[in-house]
Input
Amino acid sequence: MITYKKHTLDNGLRLIIHEDESTPMAAVNLLYDVGARDETSEKTGFAHLFEHLMFGGSTNIADFDAELQLAGGTSNAFTSSDITNYYNLLPAQNLETALWLESDRMLNLHFSQQALDVEKKVVSEEFKQYFLNQPYGDAWHNVLKMCYKTHPYGWPVIGKNLEHISNFVIDDVIAFFNKHYCPNNAILAIAGGVKAEKVLELVKKWFGNISPNDKPKRKLPFEAPQTAKRNSTIKAEVPLNALYMTFGTPVRNVAEFYGVDFISDILSGGQSSRLHQSLVKKQQLFNQIGAYITANIEPGLLLIEGKLNDGVTLEVAEKAVWDEIEKLKTDAVEEEEMIKVKHKIEAHIEFNQNKILNRAMDLCYFELLDEIELINTEVEKYQQVDATTVKQLANTYLKASKSSVLHYYANND
Amino acid sequence: MDRSLAPPISLLADIPFAEAKKIKLSDNVEAYLVEGGKKNIIRLQTYIKAGRWHEPQKLVAQICARMLKEGTKNYTAKALAEKIDFYGATISTKAHFDYVCITLYTLKKFLPQVLELQTEILTNAIFPEKELNTIINNSKQQLKVNLEKTDYLASTAFLAEVFGDKHPYGYEVSEKDYSVLEVETLKKFYRQCYHKSATVYICGKFNEQDITVVQKSYTSLFNDNSKQSILNKNEYAYHPTKKTITKPNCLQAAIRIGGTALPKTHKDRFNFNILNIILGGYFGSRLMKNIREEKGYTYSINSGIQSYLNGNYFLISTEVGKEVCDAAVNEIFTELNRLQNEVISDSELQLVKNFICGALLRLIDGPFKAAGVLKDLYDFDLNTRYFANYINKVKNITAEELLNCAQTHLKEDTLTQVIARC
Output
């Protein structure tokens, strides 16, 4: 049982405190309710680029990292389609340093043309490193483009292309900051060897006088329900053919979400999972294959991706995956397999929550979903999934007409 | 309130770093216990001297480790996988340079069942031909993918240059090395290397009863008292080189610059560690500041020191845009030269000292991390006394000492440079 205290400051900043006396460290996690989904289709990749700029100095503090390092701390951040999340880990007695730093950059950034120019280059190199200079690196761009016709989930967080990154100007930075970076659009969690009263006092001291802003209203383009199977192909200089198949999944905070995630674990959780045993081991069609969900707040994707063995055609490989999906729709999953998946999920969540930083991140994220008790009840949500539900969800979500399939061909000419 | 004033900070006078409790699991097995954490989970690692250093031919250690779960006397590969997954556990079996490490991750409540499965793979593995063929085939195809990556090409070539391509730490692999592997070789390696002795690290939330269960489980393991034969390894004399690997159509170049490093027990190693941190060992390092934050040549650049039982290396590593590759290499050497020619400023040194004190505290944040740090000490016959004076040593180190260390150990003509580019 993870205990926490929740407060909302007058300016709308939500604060969650979790005491854990067993560690000498404190984790400070600050989530902003803004992600790549808040971008427009002609200016993609900005939420993430902006995250980099948040380390470029604020009005009163020239070098965020240097000050944190002086206090013995370390910091980083990530951006997803849904959120931007900043985190700091430092000796608990120096907690105030992290609050000073995070509050100052929430108050106002130092907007610098030079910092923008450099970070555009850094992010371009990040783009190349993970998406362009890797075999299959462009697959994800192509999959998302196929799955979403209007919704901003249709592009990856890094952005659609390098041109978008290089086109951003300082006015974009200022406008984005003013719109999204305010206390009432943020959730702060502090976990570790701290005392709740003292934390509240310090948070009020540093964040209390930051003015709220109009909370940005989110009006995302409506994605029309998919009615027919979508197919596409790529041919590139890669060594092996690869298959990517996706299906739409429900929004994050409904019971069905846990059922669909459960299905992805039946398909590929562990060495005994169905896809590995059937397609890698028994039929020897793939040399690796996995399934996972994107776990977005709005309707996301269940993705199956695998690399084919030499000499196997994409048609044969795809058909074999469909056969496995068909089994989920027609045969009830045996009790033993259901228990296995539940144990695996329980272990996964327990190991993940062993770290204070992960607990702080989860507390912020679950609070964003308006369901903070998930920190203690998430395991139960999965325990409640039964074989009937799995079969029914497979029939609802894993339809051919709801699928998008990318055949990635190795250029063997 | 004046926001330009930093709140007061304080750093620890000492690290509350406890020695692990050491117990005997059997005549040939020592175990270290590191208790902690809030969750009912346990990680148990068994280190066996069956790594690359001990293998009779390339890849035997790696593939032998991977084959442990591919079939035993009592279970097929599939049945074993079902059992392990049923308890929500993970058993990973990985060969490293010096050791094979068998790692169990399990919920505390299933510890006895998972230990039984570990006993099965450590005593009854049978190495079925069919499963070996699948693993070899999949590994070859994975190798094809890796050979398309500049970072893989540069990293493997760097180790070959530093340790020699015949050396267990340095060799590169080809598809042929997989093809020539035979079941009998793996079986023999398993017979000879997997049953003699082991060192175990148990961490997480356990009680006496759990330890009794572990103890019982190990009574049937590692009972072979015959001596492990030592293979003759070719001693390799390191010569710094410059190597360029051409990979057509890539957008980034992978740069690896480094060489052999001082062993952990060398008198200058402490100072060299600090130098490494200043150069590329943290986010605010000189390489990050110059090559990422000022020039924007890369997403990331870092330097590090790796120590194994039979060798050490120092390595600067980055991927940069192909058009700025030469400029980036120049800047790396500029930073190396600065360390040898300029005295580090008081403010930078103070920052690094504080950062290290915080980093030391993070090292012992939770039992899993602490166990890893302890292993790194115990492997080299050190103990937590190593850290007892560490903070004092950090606080007292001077800019002159660092300058001397750089002049002695970071000379340009001792460094090897490998670049994979188009």
